[in-house]
Amino acid sequence: MIQLKEEFKNLIPPLTQEEFRQLEQNIIAEGIRENILTWQGIIIDGHNRYKIATKWGLEYETTSKHFKDEEAVKEWMILNQFGRRNLSNYQRSVLALELEEVFTKKAKENQGNRNDILQNSAESKPIDTRKELSKVASVSHDTITRVKKIEEKADEETKAKLRTGEISINQVYTDIKKQEKREEQRTKVLSERNNDNISTEENIKNGDSLEILETLPDESIDIVLTDPPYGISYISNRSIFEDTITKRGLMNDGKEAIELLDKTCEILSRKAAKNSHLYFFCSWSVFSSFESIIGKYFTIKTPIVWDKGNKGSGDLDNDWGNQTEIVIFCTKGKKLINKRLGNIINVPRMHTSKMIHPTQKPEELLKTILDVSYIDGDFVVDPFMGSGSTIKVANKMGAKSLGIELDNEMFQIANKYLKNA
Predict the structure, then answer these.
(1) Which of 30, 148, 321, 326 could share a disulfide with 311, CB 3.0–4.6 Å?
(2) C-alpha 336: how far from its chain's center?
């Protein structure tokens, strides 16, 4: 009886939907012309033909092949694929890497059988093996090395895009190396922060804002002043210095940013006092989305425009230079303002040399906003505190406040920043 072995089946690069459909049509029209090959009753060639035959009740013939062991079977199956299919460099490299264990075992066996090479360094074998793999796959040694890293680090969605050619090996490998460098730097910074033995300020917390906000009493927050994730890149390439703060990546800034805002506002709608003020910084590019979400839970008032005094980068040849940022001001109930200002605030943006966070806001700007809304005894909350500037200003005003930050590294930096205030 014919059998399937998943380990063998998984050695074969899967056909695309179009390739499988074409094969199925050909087989239905012409029958199965090639024998399905087996070893000890297990299919080693013809998995797709067997699947189609089983589905349509078609007849097929088998041919049994002899091999010494499973390792020999795997080697034959992989080498057989190279000669039969038009595979991409990524697929060829993945197949070749399946042979790495086989080649390594052979090298060890050869070494064990020959006394004259016992003194050779075992560390040289993987290098020789990798070169052999590149020859088998007809790709460069560097390509094999990069694909090996990709197979270890990339997610299945990325690998699927590589198989279809939607993205390149170099692109994925470069992204992985950048991520590894960021992780290495983050680990180093955290280690240094931990060695400082810095105690944590009582009014800031490191963790998920959704979870921490839920622990607050209902209707306890009087003012929210925050700069939520926008779901766009904050990494600037303008500076020539690699260690500038504007080149630091931020956590929780992916496609889920809009969904996160919705969940945050829902919780805040319960935690905000009956009469409270809320301020959300946002970019013009996400203003419509932010306004739509925030408007479900609060009454949006006149937007505030922060004039930063200098133009940002962007399309230098075909667009106006943007030098503003929007603050969505909204209310729950009817909390009175202390004074009525115009909705344009002219405060120069901070120089990057003084920033500890890529989107850090000037203290003067934050104090201008709080002066309009804050009365003695108010509880000020920033669910995405970043640098902790809002909390720093609140502390100077003597306000009860709470800052929350998910990014552990940024939290440690903000904590030290507040301690040094």
Answers:
(1) 321
(2) 42
